Fold:
Amino acid sequence: MVSPFSARRVAAALATGASFTLALACSEVLGIHDIEPPDAGGDVSSQVDSSPVPVDGTPGLDSGPGDARGDSSPTFDSTTDADSGADVTMSDGPDDATEEDSSLRICPPACNGGETKCGDGGLVTCERDDGGCYRWSESPCPGGQACWGPVYQAYCCGGGPSVCAPSCYFDGGPGDPDAGNGQNNCGRGGDESCCTALDVTGGTFLRSYDGVTATDNTNPATVSSFALDKFEVTVGRFRQFVAAANAGWVPPEGAGIHSHLNGGQGLVDSSYDGGGVYEPGWASLWSQYLPQPGAWTSYLESDPVHSTWTNNPSAYEAYAINSVNWYIAYAFCIWDNGFLPSETEWNYAAAGGSDQRVYAWSTPPTSTTITCADADYKACADAPAPVGIYTSGYGKYGHADLTGGEWEWTLDYFQTYQSPCFDCAYVNDPGTGLRTLRGASWDYPANQLYVATRLSDDPTIHFSNDGFRCARPP
Structure:
């Protein structure tokens, strides 16, 4: 059965060789993704007449570890309402001041009770002191553990950055090696943490080029080392995020930048030829494109045939979460202590760096061989599958399902490549409003799984063949 969402992409999925132009023409009628042929050199060949697309907000400043949050106005430590008109007694001297009287006390800039952050010696928590003021209090993490997490969400954890990610660090969850539950573990044997992140050694390569199916060699880029999730984000991991979102969590303004780059400023913005402009991170106005608390299940189950989400844990916990829009993908990675990979970072990992591979698994790099043991694509299962089971299709750095499985959202707006590129990304809208996806999916043919294939779409859409994975500092 072909779902209505999958049917909107039939023209693109059937595109081959000389029929590519025809498929693009059909896409304008059907409203499907715009696909750029690999040899187009990054040009935008068509656009989607999409639903309203948000305008990027003004870049915000991410709260630093030492920032205070909340109302920093003077606080009256009294049982008498300061606005009630009642008299406030000021003492004449030290002898008159007691804890029980209505003396005016000035608290330091406030923090919100229960908020946490990482300090030099461990976990810093906002707690109320004996005088009624909220202050930051620091305590060491237990032996063998370290402090992990962004400001206001930090915690002590024993392990690496992937194991200690919020989506994985809970009893019996995807990161628990003792869970003993195949639904919460990934890989062909079901015995590997779904939260594994692998290092990608940086270098220089040619974007969307393999020398066979894509021959435009005019778009070099240099990428710094980073870590990338081995698997696409699974339903089991995503379930923890939905719980947080249903409780009201939204990304803070300016969060989600590649803070390990350019002295904490993040990626260089390709939309400014002169340089000196960097990624702004999350814009608070984007939160309107996240489902409202309580509405996540109806949103994620939009395709009754191929959506992988279920309201309660099921046999799909180790499948890639799909039917997510760009904003959801970005928000999850922020919440999970990571960030969305740039298009260039994703392309570099899938191409095997300077190998410039045709497929992520191609050995030699120019090999166009593909079988049903390599990837989940149309000629084989033609349906979502558990992540990581196509082990012969792993990439150079060990990542699974880089091509096939789900299209993967990347950080960038869709635009012609700009050079030079040193840790660059299109992070301001060039006028199309479209975001970039890479990697093709389970309902696309073999000739669309080439690493060089680019795809653009409205960031508000959520098809059952769209997923993502997160990147992390090295």
